[in-house]
Amino acid sequence: MPVASDVEESATDTDAAGEGLPINEVFYSLQGEGTLAGIPSVFVRTSGCNLRCWFCDSYHTSWEPTGAWRDVNSILEEVQSHEQANHVVLTGGEPLIHEQSVELLERLAAEGYHTTVETNGTIYRDAPIDLTSISPKLASSTPTPDRDPKGDGEWEEKHEENRIDMDALSLMVDAYETQLKFVVTDESDLLEITDLVERVRAATATTVADDDVLLMPEGMTREQLDGTRSEVAELAMEYGYRYTPRLHVDLWNDAPGT
């Protein structure tokens, strides 16, 4: 299992390291994915990631990370400015590469917020988290040269080596309420998904039910989802897993801040 501090140093490519967290954006919207889809939530999106999925829907937190370093107090103040929200989603990038994410989660918990952490499941941290939304990265996510958005494939080997960490993943499943959310590109992903689910079940004391396993169609625009959602919904019914929409894409297409 990677040492979180080492991952943080190597994966945060924002212009200059500072105090607090590198924040790409903070915004108020509806949770678009998973078991809490439709819940009004404040999203805190950190910048920096230890993986590079070719289809990443937050390109400027991974492939070309951007953002400003902000202290936890200022982030909390912005969250609190959305008075109608009591759910906060910490997302990225990969938010758990940053040690200060723990302090932010502690502060949010102290203020009574329900917190969801959206993570790739490769880094475990001990923090007050109400729901871990773990999206393990499948082989189909690897940025091979023909799919690399930057065209050179330099992340292919590193991504493939690090995309699954069973130690961190198992710790997370046993420690927190969890949903396993898989981005599905086509039917060929299901063999790896069913194998990984069985490995998680064998490695944990927690019961991982089929409806804790979510299948989500790959696609960042309505047009792309039009080509994948029906197939993925059929696969969910065939395998007994849960289908999850990308509600924010259905509602707002690929508009920023949604």
From TrEMBL:
This is 7-carboxy-7-deazaguanine synthase. It catalyses: 6-carboxy-5,6,7,8-tetrahydropterin + H(+) = 7-carboxy-7-carbaguanine + NH4(+). [4Fe-4S] cluster binds at residues 49, 53, 56. Pathway: Purine metabolism; 7-cyano-7-deazaguanine biosynthesis. Residues 134-161 are annotated as: Disordered. The keyword Methyltransferase does not apply. Residues 134-144 have a biased composition (Polar residues). InterPro entries: 7-CO-7-deazaguanine_synth-like (IPR024924), Aldolase_TIM (IPR013785), rSAM (IPR007197), rSAM_sf (IPR058240). Binds 1 [4Fe-4S] cluster. The cluster is coordinated with 3 cysteines and an exchangeable S-adenosyl-L-methionine. Binds 1 S-adenosyl-L-methionine per subunit. Homodimer. CDD domains: Radical_SAM (cd01335). Mg(2+) binds at residue 58. SUPFAM superfamilies: Radical SAM enzymes. It comes from Halopenitus malekzadehii. Catalyzes the complex heterocyclic radical-mediated conversion of 6-carboxy-5,6,7,8-tetrahydropterin (CPH4) to 7-carboxy-7-deazaguanine (CDG), a step common to the biosynthetic pathways of all 7-deazapurine-containing compounds. Its cofactor is [4Fe-4S] cluster; S-adenosyl-L-methionine; Mg(2+). The lineage of its organism: Archaea, Methanobacteriati, Methanobacteriota, Stenosarchaea group, Halobacteria. Its EC number is 4.3.99.3. Residues 145-161 have a biased composition (Basic and acidic residues). PANTHER family: 7-CARBOXY-7-DEAZAGUANINE SYNTHASE. Belongs to the radical SAM superfamily. 7-carboxy-7-deazaguanine synthase family. It holds the Pfam family Radical_SAM. Substrate binds at residues 30-32, 45, 91.
